[in-house]
Amino acid sequence: MLCKDQRMAIRAGAARTPVAAATPPLLSRRERGSGGEGLHHAVLGLAMLLALLGLSGCGGAGSTAGKLVTQKQLVGQLTIALEAPEKPPLLAEQDLVIVLTDRAGQPVDGAEVWLALVMPTMRHSPNEPDAVAAGPGRYKASVLFTMVGNWNVEIHATVRGQEYIATFHAPVA
Questions:
Q1: Does residue 23 fall inside a structural domain?
Q2: Greater pLDDT, 65 or 89
Q3: Which of 21, 37, 133, 153 is deepest in the core (most CB within 10 A)?
Q4: Is the pTM of this model over 0.90?
């Protein structure tokens, strides 16, 4: 056991002796790295993001984004059909085709047709594109879905002064 004087001497010596700073072991450049990994990873990440954004814009106007599906509704004496992508893409302008037929299955021409794109969970005004004639009983509207989620596509068709409305669903991913 140390006596009081020995303990005091040790304490006094420790106080006067500077503590050596911990020095890291010497590492080779390969072990240390060049220091540019962070920048390299950031540039690589940015390149991947730009590539994904570029690919998401492929297809252009009128793109159908995969398989087309046809939904139909009988409204009064008029059958309203919507031909649209099974999974409409986000932020890609595309054409939806509306087909109007009478009870006998004959095309209905001369109708005034417009759409109301409504996202039921949101409280914003609907997008309301007009459709143009595109053949016997066929009308085409260019649309753009601006948010991911479930959309209602309301088709408004006025035939000989009578308005018909059909609502279809479009899940946008």
A1: no
A2: 89
A3: 153
A4: no
